Amino acid sequence: MLALIIIPLILCIAFILLAVFVQDHYDIWATVLASLFGVIAIFIFLFAVVNPLVIKTEIKQFKAFEHTLINARENSTLSEMERAAILSKIAEWNEWLADVQYRNTWLINAIPDDVNDLKPIK
Predict the structure, then answer these.
(1) What integer is the mean pLDDT of 85-113?
(2) H helices then E strands: how many in the chain?
(3) Left (φ > 0), alpha (ψ -120 to 50) or beta: where does 119 sit?
(4) What is the C-alpha separation between 34 and 86, in angstroms, rounded?
């Protein structure tokens, strides 16, 4: 995880410095290319920092929904409309879980491994 933060940051600084250096010695295309790579490195850095934080927040929301669901199931006075709404939410959260667990198999360290411990809601 730390490598996903440090490497793009170093690349970003290097490409911005390269853009400044190249500006005096070469044509405009070299400057544009170096600046473009710097911007790409910034986006990689932001992805590496922000994405795990978002996923951790969603994991907490998933667990909160599980606890809410347990309490709702213990309450036997749910109407058909409330049951339908709960089933819809269960389907949404299970879809989210499947998507995140799949992305965790090919996005190296971009998604916290805590997501693998979660089980689909039944």
Answers:
(1) 85
(2) 3, 0
(3) beta
(4) 51
Question: What's the whole-number mean pLDDT along residues 93-115?
Answer: 82
Report pLDDT for 88: 93
Q: What is the pLDDT of residues 3-33, one digit of tens each?
A: 556 666 677 677 767 666 666 666 666 667 7
First vs last C-alpha separation in the chain: 32
**pLDDT recorded at residue 5:** 62
Q: Are 44 and 15 in contact (CB under 8 A)?
A: no
Res 61: pLDDT: 95
The phi and psi torsions of 118 (rounded to 5 degrees) equal -80, 145
**What's the distance, CA 80 to chain centroid?**
35
Closest to 52 measured CA to CA, from 6, 5, 119: 5
